[in-house]
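Re: the 390-residue chain
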Amino acid sequence: MKPSKLILPIIVISQFCCTSLWFAGNGVMSELIINFNLKDSALGHLTSAVQFGFILGTLTFAILTIADRFSPSKVFLSCAILGAISNLAVTYEANSLVSILSLRFITGFFLAGIYPVGMKIAADYYNKGLGKSLGFLVGALVIGTAFPHLAKDLTRVFPWKSVFILTSTLAIIGGLLMILFVPDGPFRKSGSQLKLSAFIQVFKNREFRSATFGYFGHMWELYAFWAFVPILLQTYIVKHPEVTLNIPVLSFSIIGIGGFACVLSGYLAQAAGTKRVARLALFLSCLCCLVSPLIFMIESESIFIGFLIFWGMVVIADSPLFSTLVAQKADPEVKGTALTIVNCIGFAITIISIQSLNLLQGLVAPTYIYTILALGPILGLIALQQNKLH
């Protein structure tokens, strides 16, 4: 039975609404520091709190096999509501650094029941054409990631609390949409028993292991690139003082274009094969890492920006495809757990790569540090080559 044409748009809208919680604090970070008398060093801690919460959340959800033992739509709604509450609680005027960090951490924890579970729901509906479906889902997340760069100007017009009120409201709407219009999919296989061994069991599958290692290589580069896009632009301005760049708008464009790339890669995968397109995108992003020192020497700002836009596309284009390969190669009864485990490890890797760039900033010329990001794609390509995935 073919799913309703409304299913995918609803999943995508719900995913976008709920994942807006992830970056709610980014656009008003300076206002948080001022209003709660925080130190400037709090900036990095507040940014990392959601990531750490998400990692612990995905680990917990994976070990307890939550998305396989319970209805994914109900899990999605529950986490959307709890995430919205913890997000909104940041507006409480008596908050301190510790309480805000805790609330952002809790929000990240419940995002583990939204982002990977949303992919699980899509996988339960779309056995064929899953790459295209996940392309839309990851694309929605990419736009959400990019939006805070534009929101910097908008927060001058609206009170900072309105950002948290809006994102919490969106999250609840997204959760309700999912529970009301997206019942359990036709390809869902329920795992009724708690299987603590599932966390290890999924990696015994050789083809699944190959797909996940490709994904891990991709994640090593992705978030580090996203985090350093404004710094990339600032470095170019320092090298070429005559150039004037609108860093917030360009950051949004460079990251946001990845949403289009995710959708495009999904359609290309249907014609050329999921693994082939994923491998090509991983190779091209690896190439961007390796030639990045040379691009800073180019006098033309148009070529420089064009290069970064291209990098912004290929760095994320393979993300929905790797998720597709992981979903297809995982055993059906632990598919949700498999997707959650992969997200957990993948996001842990992003923290290591981001901190590696931070460390290198003080040791190496800023134009050369991005070559280290090629390490992930290289290892990912080797993993893909070792197994003949379809």
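The mean pLDDT is 85.
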